[in-house]
Design a protein that fits this description.
37% helix, Alpha-Beta Plaits, homodimer, 19% strand, 18 strands, 17 helices
Amino acid sequence: MYGTSRAKPDQVVMKEAIDELAAAFGNRLVTSDAVCEQHANTTTWILPEPPDAVIYPQSAGDVQLAVRICKKHGVPVVAFGAGTSFEGSVNSPYGGISIDLKDMNRILEVHNEDFDCVVEPGVTRKQINEHLRDQGLFFPVDPGADYASLGGMASTRASGTTTVRYGTMKDNVLALKIVLPDGELITTSRRARKSAAGYDLTRLFVGAEGTLGIITELTLKLHGLPEATAAAVCRFPTIDDACNAAIAAIQAGIPVARVELLDEVMICGCNAYSKLNLAETPTLFLEFHGTDAGVQEQAKRFGQIAEESAGSAFEWATKPEERNRLWQARHDSFWAIQVLRPGAKVLVTDVCVPISRLAQCVVETKRDIEQSGLIAPIVGHAGDGNFHAGVLVMLDDPEEVARAKEFSDRLAVRAISMEGTCTGEHGIGQGKKRFLEPEHGELAVNVMRAIKHAIDPTGIMNPGKIV
Amino acid sequence: MYGTSRAKPDQVVMKEAIDELAAAFGNRLVTSDAVCEQHANTTTWILPEPPDAVIYPQSAGDVQLAVRICKKHGVPVVAFGAGTSFEGSVNSPYGGISIDLKDMNRILEVHNEDFDCVVEPGVTRKQINEHLRDQGLFFPVDPGADYASLGGMASTRASGTTTVRYGTMKDNVLALKIVLPDGELITTSRRARKSAAGYDLTRLFVGAEGTLGIITELTLKLHGLPEATAAAVCRFPTIDDACNAAIAAIQAGIPVARVELLDEVMICGCNAYSKLNLAETPTLFLEFHGTDAGVQEQAKRFGQIAEESAGSAFEWATKPEERNRLWQARHDSFWAIQVLRPGAKVLVTDVCVPISRLAQCVVETKRDIEQSGLIAPIVGHAGDGNFHAGVLVMLDDPEEVARAKEFSDRLAVRAISMEGTCTGEHGIGQGKKRFLEPEHGELAVNVMRAIKHAIDPTGIMNPGKIV
């Protein structure tokens, strides 16, 4: 019904739903403007659209009850993790109820002998890794935002700095518990490492951005902490050289754990925000994982490649505190962008292309930024062919906002024209909906619509997103 | 309609459909009994159920035309790759048209700079690897059957000996072209290594066993041929010891490329069939990939683990011809099983459990085989917790067949009770349908049914399989 009729529920209906939810949830239902506004998207140019109320469930049973009440009244349900979406995935364009899963933050089981764990969706990636550290294990997916929730990361098919080595959420979720739009609870798979038993429901719900159901539990693959880790910084005269070194490393089969590209504008921001002293030129941040000998070998081979691409000698960061400082700076890049232009808002976009097209795509994009008169640092997961542009705009300048949007649209079209995708890891949400058909074709999007309709026939689950 | 009404199409309707197909396909449509019987499942106890006709398309356009004609007449369509399914996936219980994709066997593109290639579904894994060898690349998924087609492997979410290191078909398919049940052609994804753009249609069609559409093109991930490869054989006094060594190697994070378990019965068959001279005791076949130094390091660490599990010293096979002989023997295990009991048929089943449960599951299964008075070698991808039992039965002895079936059922239930799956890599087909609900629960299977109905509302695609 939403997504076709595009109407908010009648206010009388909404009030009845909220009254029934209030009776069930007491003070775990909040309707204050401040809280509702916190649950509307605020990280992009997409207008914040608050829900009518926010609920804080503590169990799958709570989520089932909330969804059943919403279904009865035909009221939208928007799952909310940590609110770090860049594409308006948690916005409530048709009002309704935001289900904030932050209180469902328990680590339920760690099977260290099987390298997996079971967690609630509100657990953050930082929290799980702090919990696992003593057991010699870690969860690798690292989207940059340390406080991202694992439920949200699964919902947007997140990836990040370590994906080049360890994969995306699609590769690291073994099973999910899902509350369906009718309030029923299913488990999508078992704890075995692989299965050929039926349709792959796990991968269907990973990346569905809450439009098919709400994740209430995740079984995640874990990895052994590497025996040895080394990080390094390598500078290049041009962005083209930096991209080409990353491409050559991947093509040579070096199993880099991280290979992050930061352009000179981004480095400038990192220096200012993180009190670093890096030369302001295109740079790769690298990390190698393995045995002592393996790490040495990887680094040596990368060094040869970097030399051929006119890269500087490595600056090593082998001590944990140095390494952490470097990666903290990378993780803080969203904040570092902002210091480049006080008062401006960062509009972050992301694309991914086959790695052979990365240098061309980045170079054309930088030229486009310059020609558009915009300030937009580029930072990317170069090993995957994935990069972000963070456009700094003054939201009170509609002409500038329009220019930034046009740039972002051209970037999506450019990536698609290079056999790439309009979003490598941020998701479609509201912001990229218009690129879904250009990317997949109308007929494939019709299959997505048919699936959406089959699983959520009344369209209450996160209406207005993806399809 | 099929799967609910369970009726074959009326013979008049069938004749009309075949006449129309014959007009379109000429001698590429065959109705002879011999050919139809070749296209009915013959590898298990499931009764062969031949189609009414077989078509040999040469392009996606041919497949679209055939599907459109079948749809118009309401006639079942069963995609056929190489016919190596163990679970009756290519059987035609409701008659109809078998679409044999063997002529669609062109390698369309190899992008060596992006480590991917584009192939038609009839290309076999052997063919693609022969084509790639000179380019230093390979496609890793190795289900054991060298002549398996890549389309069939994707359809059953196949995996195999190298999955422990390189993943399953789910991990190695980047994109698919699919002819939908209405004859339309879609592309499920782009050539970028990752994407967060909409529902993961690729993973939905991987493992759908042709029940949602027919694969007419695959974009596959490739991997660099390892600089160094070493293979080894390691014997153990008991199956428990062999499992525990494999488990310990995985838990120690050794990136083994292959770790295959063969019980003493299987070794006996390999000796007879492949003219080997292996000690008839539980054995692991291992393979290590990496740099020279890396392979040495992995092998040394595995040696220490094997010693702790009472394993023999390695017998190395570093020369390519020795290594090939070893793996050829492993690949021929399906045939090797048969020499153990001339005249018997091999009923192969497969389960997968969390690796911590592997030893227990294998030991209980071996006890069950003994108590059931059956001959059933065990061979498995130990690193994934996945193993097969090949039960040798005389098909003309109904009591023995019943005993074999009961054993196989108990094995599926045992795996499910250990948080595992009733099939790690063979698929559900017809043979494992009754375990789909015990494994996933009725509500999750209802979601699969809803998806099937949404994409194939008239149920013409491979009716009677999975759901």
